[in-house]
Write a structure and sequence with these properties.
- This protein is α/β, with parallel strands linked by helices.
- The protein has a single domain, classed as Rossmann fold (3-Layer(aba) Sandwich), CATH 3.40.50.150.
- Strands 3-2-1-4-5-7-6-8 form an eight-stranded mixed β-sheet, sandwiched between helices.
- It is globular.
Length: about 220
């Protein structure tokens, strides 16, 4: 398995070397020590949430520690629904208070997971996304070239920041924790872009504080 993955990474690196954006600068976020589980636990207790959905469970690092009624979706490991998030949403009839998205870290899938999650989100619910703040172009390249990888989740956050009826921001903790709440957007991002998928990492590097609306962990839980 690892040998196949390394081979895949090698050919993906060749692809990026020939065809992809070149950019060498890196970002030091100075992340808070709090993590995704701290945030999820806080919002569940604060709002007395009853129903939790997790997309992308892997080894159940988070899922096993959630003690309310829960569904975990993963095609390979963990959770209690074996299949893709697309499969789950087709079959699902439940509503959820807290939805944690940590599945396939590729814009096309992430934006689909967000839109499907919105349809099943209770009125005072929250969507949380992991891996929203890549520190370098290597950490966000698609297709993937490394084990430690964020993907281009950030592009879906940028898109959500342009919506009128959803308040979206990013907490500076645990590789970037994106927050989406169904309420009037007090800080709409005015970006004229026909394809969020094609946004460049150089643009992200130069503008991430504004486009991601980054806040500290403490400020973030106050905003929630």
């Amino acid at each position: 398995m690892e040998k196949n993955r390394n081979k895949e990474f090698f050919f993906n690196k060749l692809y990026h070397l020939l065809f992809s954006e070149k950019f060498s600068k890196k970002i030091n976020y100075n992340f808070d020590k709090k993590n995704r589980l701290d945030l999820i636990d806080f919002v569940i207790k604060k709002n007395k949430y009853k129903k939790y959905l997790e997309i992308g469970c892997n080894q159940d690092e988070v899922f096993k520690k959630i003690d309310i009624d829960k569904i975990g979706v993963d095609p390979l490991n963990g959770g209690n629904f074996r299949g893709t998030s697309d499969d789950f949403f087709i079959k699902n009839s439940d509503k959820f208070d807290c939805i944690f998205i940590d599945g396939l870290h590729i814009y096309d899938q992430v934006i689909k997971d967000i839109l499907n999650s919105i349809k099943v989100l209770n009125e005072n619910g929250i969507i949380i996304l992991h891996d929203c703040l890549p520190s370098s172009i290597g950490h966000q390249r698609v297709p993937r070239t490394r084990y430690n990888w964020n993907g281009d989740v950030w592009k879906a956050i940028v898109e959500a920041r342009t919506w009128n009826d959803f308040d979206t921001f990013t907490i500076l903790a645990d590789q970037g924790l994106g927050i989406i709440k169904k309420r009037k957007n007090p800080n709409i991002l005015d970006i004229r872009n026909s394809s969020f998928k094609n946004l460049k990492f150089k643009f992200f590097y130069n503008n991430y504080k504004e486009i991601m609306r980054t806040v500290s962990f403490n400020d973030g839980i106050e905003m929630i």
